[in-house]
Amino acid sequence: MSNKDAIVKRRQGILFVVSAPSGAGKTSLCQELVSQVPDLRYSVSYTTRKPRPAEIADRHYHFVEEAAFRDMIKEGAFLEWAEVYGHLYGTPRAPLKEWIAQGIDVLLDIDTQGALQIRRHEPDAVSIYILPPSLEVLRQRLEDRKGDAPDEIARRLKKARDEVKNYRDYAYVIINEDFKSAVRQLEAIVLAERSRTALLDLSAVEQALMVNERETQEDR
Ligand code: 5GP
Asked: What is the pLDDT of residue 174?
């Protein structure tokens, strides 16, 4: 831990909400971001969707049956939940609240309905929308993913056409044309938000600066 980390205390963690039309590259971007930026946790959602071949249970999602998901809704276990492409998806409340209270930042990869719920309840959340450079690129990426059936791809493409205009409701927009520069942009947003004065407890810094001031005066 550097000296700067020791004296600049964070009041509480920041909630980053990232949305995008399906196939815009959001999940890969979010995973890369979490691996690059220290103290940023990825919130693993619950879903009733079946796993894709490359997906790992409890890492990409907690895969559950619909009855279990509905029980969790009743228990108030989700901070938000939504039906997307005929499946249920939800953000578990408990781990997220714990991390935020500990001053750890959390990244949510959720759809626009979920993001709306979060913005209503968590006004300090930072929202980011990722756009593909074109619908053609989006189609190509959905086909290359090889995890979804053709009718599922068609359904996602149709929804993407309506979805893109949602970018207006988000604080930041990134066009994912080049993966590396999109990751750099995401990192820049996280680092800038972390420097917001209102989020920092700078009393230790102030004290250190005052001590220096006294020493300077004594030196004179
Ligand atoms: P996919 O099935 O492609 O993994 O995800 C489909 C959509 O559901 C994506 O837009 C993804 O961001 C969204 N999603 C994933 N987890 C959650 C969640 O916990 N809540 C909501 N509202 N959307 C989610």
From this structure: 96
